[in-house]
Design brief:
2 copies of one chain form a homodimer.
Chain A lengths: L1 H10 L1 E3 L3 E3 L1 H5 L1 E2 L1 H15 L6 E5 L3 H12 L3 E4 L11 E7 L6 E7 L8 E9 L3 H13 L2 E11 L4 H7 L4 E10 L4 E3 L8
Parallel strand pairs in A: 4-5, 4-8, 8-9, 9-10
Antiparallel strand pairs in A: 1-2, 6-7, 10-11
GO molecular function, one term (chains A, B): xanthine phosphoribosyltransferase activity
Protein name (chains A, B): Xanthine phosphoribosyltransferase
Pathway (chains A, B): Purine metabolism; XMP biosynthesis via salvage pathway; XMP from xanthine: step 1/1
Chain lengths: 196, 196
C-alpha cells in the first residue's frame, strides 16, 4: 500500500536492534485518515472470504482491527495479556514472546467469544518473527474455528516470520513489507516479491 | 444512551466485588454496530468544542476512541503501560491504580505526541473510582494542553469517581451511569440525575 510505505519513509524512524518506530501514526498516536485507508485496504483483500470475526492482540492491533471492522461489519475480539477481575476462568491460552517488550507473556481469549464456526481474520500492526500471529493462530485452532488469514500493516520481511507462515500455508497479507532497513534507507518488497 | 443501557441489561453480568462484565460487546469482544453508535454519540456531545486530539489508555479505551475519531477527524493518542524498545525516553509519566487489574502501574505518553495547543477529549470504556481519567488528565496538564472533557461508555456512579471529577469542574459525559447494581438488578441514573 503506497500510502503506508510513503508514510513510513517520511515519519518512520529506525532504532537500534532492528526496531522501526512508527509511533507517530500507527501505534501510539494513531492517524485517523491513514487508518481509514488501511481498514479499507484490508477489507478489499479479504472481502470475499466470509469473515465473521476479526481477532487481534492488545494493544496496538486493536485500532487497525476496529478500522477494518466497519467494512466487514464483524466484531473484533482482542486477546488479552493480563487477567483482570472481569475475566471468566474459561479461556483458551497460549504463550507469546515479544521482542519489543522483551520477555514472554501468556495471552488468552474467553472461550465463549471464539467458537467453531467462526471464520477468523487475524489483524496486527507488526509482523516480525511472527510470535504474536502464531499465538493467535493457536487460539483459533484451540477453539476449532477456521482461520481465513492474517493481515498486518507492517511486515519486517528480513526477520522471516511472514515467510515462515506463508510456507506453512497461512494467507498472510502485509500492507508494507520491509526487506531491509538501516538508519539511511528503508527498502520495501515490491508486489511481485522483489526488493524495490 | 438507551442502546447501551439496554445492551448492559441484556448481556452485562455482575461479578463479585462490584465488577460489571461487558466483555461480550465492549471490552473483549467488540460489537462493531454498537461501537459505531457510541462513537457517533460521543461526537454529537463534543462536536462544537474544537477537539484536536482524542486520548485514551491501553487497552480497552482504544476501540471506543477509534470509533469516535472517525467523526472528529482527529488522531487518537493512547497512553501506554509498559516501556518497549520502540519508545523514546522523553515522556510525560504518571501513576494509575487499577481496581480490575489490582495494583498500580506507570502510564506514559511520548512528549512529542501531546503538546500545548492540543484540545484533548479523553475517552475510556469505564469510569469507576476515576483513577485512569485522573492519570490521563495529569498527562494533559503536564503537556500544557487543554482538556475539553472526558467521555466514557459506562460510569459506575455509585463508586463516585465521576461526580468527584465533575465537582472539580471537569466535563464528564457518560453514555450510561449505573447508580446501583446487584445480581438481580442494574439501576441507571436518568438524564435529569435521578435513578431510573
Amino acid at each position: 500500500m503506497k500510502l503506508l510505505e510513503e508514510r513510513i519513509l517520511r515519519d518512520g524512524k529506525v532504532y537500534p536492534g532492528e526496531v522501526l518506530k512508527v509511533g507517530g501514526f500507527l501505534n501510539h498516536l494513531i492517524d485517523d485518515g491513514l487508518l481509514e485507508e488501511i481498514g479499507k485496504d484490508i477489507h478489499a483483500h479479504f472481502s470475499g472470504d466470509g469473515v465473521t470475526k476479526l481477532m487481534t492482540i492488545e494493544a496496538s492491533g486493536i485500532a487497525i482491527a476496529c478500522y477494518a471492522a466497519r467494512h466487514f461489519h464483524a466484531p473484533v475480539l482482542f486477546a488479552k495479556k493480563s487477567k483482570t477481575a472481569n475475566i471468566s476462568s474459561d479461556c483458551y491460552t497460549t504463550e507469546v514472546v515479544s521482542y519489543t517488550h522483551g520477555g514472554k507473556s501468556t495471552v488468552f481469549v474467553e472461550k465463549e467469544y471464539l467458537r467453531a464456526g467462526d471464520r477468523v481474520l487475524i489483524i496486527d500492526d507488526f509482523l516480525a518473527h511472527g510470535e504474536a500471529l502464531r499465538g493467535l493462530i493457536e487460539l483459533v485452532r484451540q477453539a476449532g474455528a477456521e482461520l481465513v488469514g492474517c493481515a498486518v500493516a507492517v511486515e519486517k520481511g528480513f526477520q522471516g516470520g511472514g515467510d515462515e507462515l506463508r510456507a506453512k500455508g497461512v494467507r498472510v497479507y502485509s500492507l508494507a513489507i520491509i526487506d531491509s532497513m538501516t538508519d539511511d534507507e528503508i527498502v520495501f518488497r515490491s508486489e511481485d516479491g522483489s526488493a524495490s
